[in-house]
What does this fold into?
Amino acid sequence: MNNTLLSTHYNPTTGEIIGAPVVKRYLVDLRGCFAGGAAYAVALARGNPLLYSVASVAPADGEGDLHYGLGVIYPGKIGDEYYMTKGHLHAWRPAGEFYFGLRGAGVMLLEDEATGASRLLPLTVNAVVYVPGHTAHRTMNTGAEPLVYLGVYPARAGHDYGVIAERNFRMCVVERDGLPVMIKR
Ligand code: S6P
Ligand code: ZN
It folds into this structure.
């Protein structure tokens, strides 16, 4: 058990946790995620902005232990699609996850791996979203300020990005009349 991580403080404004390792994802890392391939190519030709970062805390790795991540997705769009995460299934498929909205406004796209059934759920300040096991999940910032959220998941959950890289989500989320709408890819 990592005693130094049994108690931490997160910054809900910046998404920082002092001492926690941070993964940063830039536009180039999201190749294949956006449905609008032409808009993606145009944006990438202009630069390679930071889309989001995640600070992770792993206090213990035993069976039954939990980890958490503090995510920050910056505001922005590629064409009519919001800045988003890569999205993943948990490598240990039964692992569920709670998301807590801390700052800004966004949505989560959930897709049942077995049926493909998709849902779009709001992730706003004080919202709690439950991601059941066997469910691919991707988060988008639909607002004008950074979206900050906390995700709590089993220590053994892991990430499986392979399925998403291969076939992406069935649905994509676009802005229509200023609001996020889920449509078929
Ligand atoms: C981990 C949890 C989050 C994501 C984060 C970034 O199970 O769901 O911490 O890792 O939202 O998304 P992604 O798809 O790039 O891992
Ligand atoms: Zn997850």
Summary: The first helix runs from residue 37 to 46.
